[in-house]
Amino acid sequence: MPRILICTVDSWNSKLSASSSSTFSSLFSQYDVKDLANLYIREELPDSKVCSRYFQISEQRVIKSLLKPRIKTGKEVFATEEMSKTELEALEKSNELYGKNRAKRSYFKLFAREAIWRFGRWRSKELNAFLEDFAPDVVVFSMEGYIHFNRICRYIIKKTGARAIGYFWDDNFTYKQLKNNFGYRALRFFQRRSLKKLAKRTDRFWAISPKTKREADEFFGIESVLLTKPADMPERSILSNAAHERPLKMVYTGNLAIGRASTIIAVSKALDKINESGSQIELDVYTPTKLLPEESRELGNFVQLHPPVPLEAVAAIQQKADILLFVEDIDGPLSKKARLSFSTKITDYLKSGKCILALGNADTAPMEYFAQTGAAICVTQKEHIEEALLTVLKSPDILAEYAERAYKSGKENHDGEKIRRIVKETIAALV
Questions:
Q1: What residues contact residue 161 under an 8 Å CB cut-off, 6+ apart?
Q2: Secondary-structure breakdown of the chain: helix, strand, coil percentages, each rounded to the nearest 5
Q3: What are the tens digits of pLDDT across the range 100-125?
Q4: Strand arrangement, sheet containing 4-7
Q5: pLDDT tens digits, residue range 217-233?
Q6: CA-to-CA distance for 257 and 261, rounded, in angstroms?
Q7: Closest C-alpha among 310, 196, 214, 327 to residue 264
Q8: 346 Cβ neighbours under 8 A, 6+ residues apart
Q9: Count of CB atoms situated within 10 Å of the CB of 172
Q10: Max alpha carbon distance in the chain (Å)?
């Protein structure tokens, strides 16, 4: 079997909200762990046993290398089954820091970060030793908006001589997210240039959704292969069939960044009206995101916030729900941020065999997918949220109908065997 190095921004840690770990671990589950390694650039420790080896380039140490050129910026780390209290605190602090940066989007800070990585010393003898020792035949990476990450991927391809596969799963190359923002357009100019350089060194491409494939193929002049996260669908008979007793239980699991919090607040206001004469629907939110005080104050009595839970516990929580909530920003300044993304939450929801209520901007890959497959009740305007919830209350059969639609879509569009066969065929064609 070929040796495969998978490069990601985040570590493969089940306690993180990032999706790269679960996506890649699902895609490469048929490979022997000794043939897989992961390189990442965050201040985190992995806990996944999918890879045999992990290499971390520390952003904090890259910053320090500007003043201390001899500081070690990269090291091989090992997956841990249990993290110490200190490590958990560091992980939580890291999550909070990156979450704040994503929420505020200070373009000055983003340019400063890229300058630090440009002149900091991330190339190291430790990195070269790791690459030479593992000697990958294939390098797989996501096509990111982080210019420094793309530069690292180009370096690895050149250093190892490995064949390369790039994975498009986000809008990092169009001007369609924030058309009139100067900082965004300036950064996007350099992101596009960075991705074009990386694309020239890349042999094959995957795209996570039909919308992503269409736009990436047109912009980069490529022919990518549609490859979504596989869903190993359980037998329908083992999934719970809730009695749908009042109040109905609605569940959301995930982060509330890039405008999702505003959508949750809109749901909360709709629930306040619906539940005026008694509790009919309640929402439980499991999230690592720290809401702003003013956001927390806007949540009514029918939305309960909970800390995040490990990935292995999410499925059990979803099975107890009547409705699974999928949210993106609907009409705020960040409503197009996820326009080419395809959240791994979607396949997890489909596997659950539950009714899905999807809220988001119509010009996004997830909402386009839900609308075309009929796998969810779709709402693309905030003023229609209350109407959708009332429809469910008046016609309880809708819950069972959309639960079946979701499960059917998972079976037809996300068959794990078919998707993993595409992975193996792509790699086999290269080596």
A1: none
A2: 45, 15, 40
A3: 555 566 899 999 999 999 999 999 99
A4: 74-77, 53-57, 36-40, 4-7, 138-142, 163-168, 204-207, 225-226
A5: 999 999 999 999 888 88
A6: 7
A7: 327
A8: 229, 326, 366, 369
A9: 21
A10: 68
